[in-house]
Design brief:
Mean pLDDT: 77
Structural class: mainly beta
CATH topology of one domain: Jelly Rolls
CATH class of one domain: Mainly Beta
Length: about 150
Amino acid sequence: MRAVESTSTRARLTWPGLALLGALALTPACGSDNTTPTTPTTPAGGTTETLNGTMAPQGIAIRTFNATQAGTVSVLLAKTDPPITLGLGVGIHGATGADCMFTQTVNAQAGTTAQLSVSVDPGTYCAGAYDIGTVGQSGVVVTVTVTHP
């Protein structure tokens, strides 16, 4: 009686394949002994909040938020109608609950990438846009996006 052979396909290494494996085994790993491991500053599941509104001349449009852990806050001036330059800021929420004291600011026009990024510790913060003297009498429609840990 004969044994039945399986007809399964087997991967076969050829001479070039063996030579490649041998070369990889002898190659030292690249790296540096003096590197410090880093961790990402923004968690993978960061929170994004959008502020839409109309800003009056000399006005401010802010969003208060809680950073649940240390990381990076990114502020994007996504839209202004009409197109103008506004100030963007990130700061500390005031004790009265109504004011925002910006500690980092930048002047920006609407775009598709964050114009302001700030490292923060866990806590309550505020971010938004403000008039730098460019808002006309009829105001400006603004969209600001704040991403935070």
